[in-house]
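User: quick one, sequence for these tokens?
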């Protein structure tokens, strides 16, 4: 607690140092702190919150398919009818929930993910040439997002060496008649201590839509248990982050953004 008070005195603002605000530890929870001068704004209407997301924007969507996703913010995007989105997400979920709803409304042009799963809608749009799909190993995807938030432009990893990830040629987009229109590019490879590593570039987005557990007026957010997943690194890897905060679907959600 003494160290927390010292940090609060250095920053000179909303780091909880006493009994009020967010606790430093909440079981399996994890805290995310904003910059020393946060620009947090709270909303009651999620549509008002996402209305600035324009056609063609790159949007990170937190969660793990069905767990810890910002379902109310996704529903708000449906209402804005924004289109040609480039989405970065762990996976595409299912047809009638989460990211699958945006696919059904044909609002997504490109997806960067690690897992397609059982989403037949994603499969059909991809094979018909209506959707670009960039598959990335899950750990690599997580690190690309983390690196984007840390200001690291690229990094080397052994994952994918000797596969299409490294060699290039993985199909990203088909033409309507089934021919390849866009393929992945080869990765740069270097050797370190006798092992081979390929270069992966960081990912940043215009917006990140994430799900939190608790938040305070200073813009601090707590992510709890399994919902910590991709929500945490995505907060730092976007120009504007929109957070949906709510303990359960039965309770009214709160929404905040920070830049």
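Assistant:
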């Amino acid at each position: 607690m003494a160290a927390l008070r010292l940090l609060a005195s250095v920053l000179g603002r909303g780091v909880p140092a006493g009994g009020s605000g967010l606790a430093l530890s909440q079981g399996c929870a994890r805290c995310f702190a904003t910059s020393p001068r946060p620009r947090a704004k709270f909303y009651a209407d999620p549509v008002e919150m996402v209305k600035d997301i324009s056609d063609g924007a790159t949007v990170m969507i937190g969660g793990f398919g069905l767990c810890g996703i910002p379902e109310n913010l996704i529903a708000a995007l449906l209402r804005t009818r924004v289109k040609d989105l480039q989405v970065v997400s762990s996976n595409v979920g299912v047809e009638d929930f989460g990211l699958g709803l945006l696919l059904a409304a044909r609002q997504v042009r490109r997806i960067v993910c690690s897992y397609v799963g059982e989403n037949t809608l994603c499969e059909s749009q991809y094979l018909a040439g209506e959707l670009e799909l960039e598959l990335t190993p899950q750990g690599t995807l997580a690190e690309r997002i983390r690196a984007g938030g840390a200001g690291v432009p690229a990094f080397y990893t052994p994952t994918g060496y000797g596969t299409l990830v490294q060699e290039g040629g993985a199909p990203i987009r088909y033409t309507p008649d089934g021919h390849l229109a866009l393929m992945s590019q080869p990765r740069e490879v270097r050797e370190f201590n006798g092992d081979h590593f390929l270069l992966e570039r960081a990912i940043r987005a215009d917006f990140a839509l994430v799900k939190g557990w608790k938040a305070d007026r200073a813009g601090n957010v707590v992510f709890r248990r399994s919902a910590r997943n991709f929500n945490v690194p995505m907060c730092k890897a976007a120009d504007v982050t929109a957070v949906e905060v709510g303990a359960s679907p039965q309770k009214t959600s709160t929404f905040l953004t920070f830049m």
